[in-house]
Amino acid sequence: MTAGLASGPQAVRAGDLSAAYSRCEEITRLEAKNFAYGIRLLPGPKRRAMSALYAFARRVDDVGDGPGSSSEKLVALAGIRSQVERLGGGCAGDDPVLLALEDACERFPIPRGALLELVTGCEMDCRQQGYQTFEDLAVYCRCVAGSIGRLSVGVFGSSDPGRASELSDTLGVALQVTNILRDVVEDRDVMGRVYLPAEDLARFGCAEDASGPLPALCDLLRFEASRARERYAEGLGLLDLLDRRSRACVGAMAGIYRRVLERIERDPLSVLDRRVSLPTWEKAWVAARSLAGASS
Fold it and tell me: Beta-carbon neighbour count of residue 199 at 10 Å?
């Protein structure tokens, strides 16, 4: 039977999957301010799978940052956890995100445990758990960002999957610390969350709510930025273990975040006034440069 004459349940499923992936790609285009620039560089099947992963991560994140009490959010996250645990058993129904995620997991060796770690990280947010040390914070970062790296490696493939998983985890910590520094005021004033380690706040003479004398805040932010920079240097060893297009994807995403971090290091107090970000032209330039570099 030719593809154009397909009919019945298989055709319906193919149509459902096409629509499901289209919806995930739409979510990625609309919501992913930095992520989308990297995955555009991937071939179609990998790009669609990454869009499904992003759409799922977005759903989890929206629960944690959305309206409702902590207990209500935890109930909703328990529901998502159950869906992940039953993925492949027909639980997707007509949910486009779950349909696409289920198909991506069938096509690629995506680690299911990392999907559950994403949920765990959001549960930590809902409990508004502070962090005493950087090592404590790194556990959270590995749940919400390192997990994305490990999921991505499942899609990318690698010449050394074990080492690639370790390096993607390290890179995820660097990316998440960058996010934390960029959003330190919004997290504190809007979400009521302080991610900066309590021992570092005390060491630099800042208050527990991440406020304090401007020189002290400046020193603290630069100190945490240096930790992120060290982890970028190590984590980007991942590039050597990936194929050309996947290398370009990771290089673009990490390149955008590193440039944000560089801006914060140059002017730490800028995060008190606005969300530090790159203009669209610069993100596109970083992506193009990553693709060119991956080809050399």
Answer: 13
Residue ranges of E strands in 55-207: none
**Given this model, what pLDDT does residue 3 score?**
35
Query: Could you give the angle at the alpha carbon of 213 between the alpha carbons of 207 and 215, nearest 5°?
Result: 125
Give the 3-state secondary structure of residue 196.
Answer: coil
Sorted by where each starts, the structural domains of the chain and their CATH numbers stand as: 11-295 (1.10.600.10)
How do residues 186-243 score in pLDDT, each as one tens digit?
999 988 899 999 999 999 999 999 999 999 999 999 999 999 999 999 999 999 999 9
With beta carbons less than 8 A apart as the criterion, state whether 137 and 224 touch: no
State the amino acid at position 90 in one-letter form.
Answer: G
Which pLDDT band, with edges at 50, 70 and 90, does 11 fall under?
very low
User: Are residues 214 and 221 in contact, defined by beta-carbon separation less than 8 angstroms?
Assistant: no
Q: Is 77 exposed, middle or buried (0-12, 13-18, 19+ CB in 10 A)?
A: buried
